[in-house]
């Protein structure tokens, strides 16, 4: 059965056990006492990030860091990874525990995205960085055509899309402090997620401060997501568990 998947991927594994491990969700691993795909996912995430950053850096020499970051966030985000997984029909190859099978885990965005990263990590171990890079580009370059970002795109939009897609919630922004004379004011804006202050941004306008705060939160979310894989530290869930009381105003 895995032969067909390898054809879809465009890579034949020398060590088929690596591919099987990449497809093994922790629910199955717990039941069968085998290795899950989380370590491979950890590695694949790093390989994917470097390949995408390198490609964007050389492909778009005139884009600033902000635009490059937006492109990168789109390409390595769960939504894009899950789309690729569905294109590969990856769900039917996953090894899932009984509970996840009943919960249709093969359709879950997070499980599919994690499996794609794990496969990238497995390809890297089975071959080398250059080969893994070629496989990544094969599947990711078509997604560049879907990028709709323009000069009006911003970190607030990216953060909103991330939170809506993964957690079905929205961030809230509140001015915490203003200082300086009217002609040279500085704003401090806090961004709250489920009532919890995640970052404070500063700028010469409210909009600039909000952008800075949203950018900081995006970096934290990616960092927390990576930590979650090994430390189970992320407390936010799609069930939108409340964290404190949300501030009463803001948008």
UniProtKB/TrEMBL annotation:
Instruction: Report the EC number(s), separated by commas if there are several.
Output: 3.1.26.3
The keyword Endoplasmic reticulum is annotated on this UniProt entry: no
- Segments for region (Disordered): 229-251
Cofactor (UniProt): Mg(2+)
> Which UniProt keywords are present, listed alphabetically?
Cytoplasm, Endonuclease, Hydrolase, Magnesium, Metal-binding, mRNA processing, Nuclease, RNA-binding, rRNA processing, rRNA-binding, tRNA processing
Q: What are the GO BP annotations of this UniProt entry?
A: mRNA processing; regulation of gene expression; rRNA processing; tRNA processing
PROSITE patterns tied to this protein:
DS_RBD, RNASE_3_1, RNASE_3_2
Q: Which GO terms describe its cellular component?
A: cytoplasm
What is the active site of this protein? 45, 117
Chemical reaction(s) catalysed: Endonucleolytic cleavage to 5'-phosphomonoester
Pinpoint the RNase III domain residues: 2-128
Annotated Mg(2+) binding lies at: 41, 114, 117
Provide a Gene Ontology MF annotation, just one: ribonuclease III activity
SUPFAM superfamilies assigned: dsRNA-binding domain-like, RNase III domain-like
In this protein, which residues make up the domain named DRBM? 154-223
Where does the protein end up?
Cytoplasm
- Subunit relationships: Homodimer.
| Protein task | Digests double-stranded RNA. Involved in the processing of primary rRNA transcript to yield the immediate precursors to the large and small rRNAs (23S and 16S). Processes some mRNAs, and tRNAs when they are encoded in the rRNA operon. Processes pre-crRNA and tracrRNA of type II CRISPR loci if present in the organism.
Q: Which family does it belong to?
A: Belongs to the ribonuclease III family.
Q: Which NCBIfam families is this protein grouped with?
A: RNaseIII
For this protein, the record's PANTHER family field holds: RIBONUCLEASE 3, RIBONUCLEASE III
- This chain's protein is named Ribonuclease 3
